[in-house]
């Protein structure tokens, strides 16, 4: 796949003046406690950990580390709230509370966007235009379902499960909290939610919003901590359901732990999605889509298009155009409105990306990175693509969760489908072609929960999201997203 034409040096052609979003309007405390039973309470063991800004490596705040005793308190509060208030409340009253959360989120969206970018490293453009509006939209959407469950499941009655334990990752912190809490509340459950250790701050802001919305105490409890806190939630006997988004390794641990307990669970796990470009596709449109599919949110996206399959006849042209486009990507301050690629979420994640990229080079892959400079402090990784890789290479098989694209070619439609499906995962995929019939033929044969055609990474609360195989079970979003929280009678 030799590229003969010269890659353009766009950096010398134009430069943008910085356009940083202001942080004057946000209020952050030095210390965050646990949100249990409608109040902020100190952790029983008095332990706190630091959350930092990955773009600088500097501490933002101290956050409480919930122990088993705190998890127990939160579960008890959620149980009491379920018995006393939430299960007794008419559905249309429940929905008013959920609407209220959505509206306050909208009112505070600017503050939430800035905090999301500060704590997690993602570009402000994404937090502002995607994460926060979609989070509010999720609450609005499920508020609408709360008193219409009989239409969601015609001919059946629904019963809430009770108390749900919910554990979420760091890549879309507030959005994942919304995906978990909104359908649980709409169906009449109460919750104990744990955000990821590296991105707890918007969840704590959500706790403030829930307090402001005046939800009965204990209906939503938000407790912070690392893996051990998550483990204590999974093992707590007082929960009726576990909803988890995160790695396949932890997902398997949850399945093993819950086997035989009768508890319900839903899992949204990893992915290794393939984008397939056929030779009749609009190449410029496809290139823009591929860039979005893998470099959006630094590739910290479970459904990222981290593999690219290009039909042989157009491979040189596509790779050349991708490299040119990569030269124009702006990497740096997440709070700058021009930034395309922000900081890697944590030191640990950067280490993992470095490890897998080194493995790709050792295994004989050809690596390409644009000619850009990275900031001196914080955690950063250049957008990267690999050619000359094969199915057995680790970078083709393993989830990298970083801005790294592995490119392969194919000749026939069947070969593309076979390669796309040759993975233990089955979360998402993409097809680029101007032939409608081919879209239907190919997408039907790809084993993935979400498949985009001539676009990528488009989300909507009305649309179900979830995986096959090692990418998980159960769906979030849409009316499908109600099912994991109800018993049908
Ligand atoms: P992770 O290590 O599995 O962590 C996810 C959450 O589980 C975090 O809150 C984590 O706590 C907690 N946790 C860790 N060990 C646990 C245990 N033994 N028991 C219970 N909870 C535990 O995943 P991650 O590295 O943060 O997130 C990246 C992964 O999430 C990727 O594999 C990605 O594909 C997947 N993901 C999937 C989706 C989807 O919808 N399918 C969406 C987003 C991400 P701490 O982080 O605080 O230690
Ligand atoms: Mg952080």
Task: Report the portion of residues in β strands.
Answer: 15-25%
- Helix-and-strand structural type: alpha/beta
Task: Describe the sheet with the most strands.
Answer: 7 strands, mixed
User: Can you tell me the residue ranges where pLDDT is under 50 for at least 5 consecutive residues?
Assistant: none
Q: How widely separated are the two ends?
A: 58 Å
Bound molecules: NADP nicotinamide-adenine-dinucleotide phosphate, magnesium ion
> Any idea of the CATH class of the largest domain?
Alpha Beta
Structure description:
By secondary structure, the protein is an alpha/beta fold. Helix content is 38%, strand content 18%. It has 15 helices and 22 strands. The longest helix has 22 residues, at 124-145. Magnesium ion (MG) is lined by residues 51-52, 119, 198-199.
What is this structure, in a nutshell?
With 489 residues, the chain is α/β, with parallel strands linked by helices.
Question: Keywords, please?
Answer:
489 residues, alpha/beta, Aldehyde Dehydrogenase, Chain A, domain 1, Aldehyde Dehydrogenase, Chain A, domain 2, 2 domains, 7-stranded mixed sheet, 6-stranded mixed sheet, 15 helices, globular, binds NADP nicotinamide-adenine-dinucleotide phosphate, binds magnesium ion
């Amino acid at each position: 796949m030799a590229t003969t034409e010269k890659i353009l040096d766009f950096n010398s052609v134009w430069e943008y003046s910085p356009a940083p979003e202001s942080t004057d309007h946000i209020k952050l405390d030095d210390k965050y406690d646990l949100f249990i039973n409608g109040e902020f309470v100190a952790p029983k063991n008095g332990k706190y950990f630091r959350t930092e800004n990955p773009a600088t490596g500097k501490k933002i705040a101290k956050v409480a580390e919930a122990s088993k005793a705190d998890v127990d308190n939160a579960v008890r509060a959620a149980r009491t709230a379920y018995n006393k208030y939430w299960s007794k409340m008419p559905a249309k009253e429940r929905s008013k509370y959920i609407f209220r959360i959505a509206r306050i989120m909208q009112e505070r969206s600017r503050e939430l966007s800035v905090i999301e970018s500060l704590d997690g490293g993602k570009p402000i453009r994404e937090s502002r235009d995607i994460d926060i509006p979609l989070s509010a939209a999720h609450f609005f959407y499920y508020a609408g379902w709360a008193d219409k469950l009989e239409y969601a499941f015609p001919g059946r009655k629904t019963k809430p499960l009770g108390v749900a334990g919910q554990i979420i990752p760091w890549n879309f912190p507030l959005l994942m909290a919304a995906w978990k809490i909104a359908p649980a509340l709409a169906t009449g459950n109460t919750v104990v939610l744990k955000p990821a250790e590296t991105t707890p701050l918007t969840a704590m802001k959500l706790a403030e919003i829930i307090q402001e919305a005046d939800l009965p105490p204990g209906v939503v409890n938000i407790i912070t901590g690392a893996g051990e806190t998550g483990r204590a939630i999974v093992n707590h006997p007082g929960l009726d359901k576990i909803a988890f988004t995160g790695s396949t390794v932890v997902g398997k641990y949850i399945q093993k732990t819950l086997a035989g307990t009768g508890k319900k669970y839903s899992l949204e796990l990893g992915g290794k999605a393939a984008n397939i470009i056929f030779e009749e596709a609009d190449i410029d449109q496809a290139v823009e889509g591929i860039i979005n599919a893998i470099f959006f949110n630094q590739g910290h996206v479970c459904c990222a298009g981290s593999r690219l399959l290009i039909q042989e006849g157009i491979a040189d042209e596509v790779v050349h155009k991708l490299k040119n486009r990569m030269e124009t990507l702006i990497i740096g301050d997440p709070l700058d409105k021009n930034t395309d690629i922000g900081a890697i979420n944590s030191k640990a994640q950067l280490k993992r990306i470095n490890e897998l990229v080194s493995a790709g080079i050792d295994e004989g892959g050809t690596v390409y990175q644009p000619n850009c400079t990275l900031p001196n402090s914080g955690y950063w990784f250049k957008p990267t693509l690999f050619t000359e890789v094969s199915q057995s290479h680790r970078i083709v098989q393993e989830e990298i969760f970083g801005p790294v694209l592995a490119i392969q070619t194919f000749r026939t439609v069947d070969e593309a489908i076979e390669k796309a499906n040759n993975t233990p995962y089955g979360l998402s995929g993409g097809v680029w072609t101007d032939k409608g019939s081919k879209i239907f033929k190919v997408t039907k044969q790809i084993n993935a929960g979400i498949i985009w055609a001539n676009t990528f990474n488009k989300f909507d609360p009305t649309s179900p999201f979830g995986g096959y195989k090692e990418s998980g079970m159960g769906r979030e979003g849409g009316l499908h997203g109600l099912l994991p929280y109800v018993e049908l009678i």
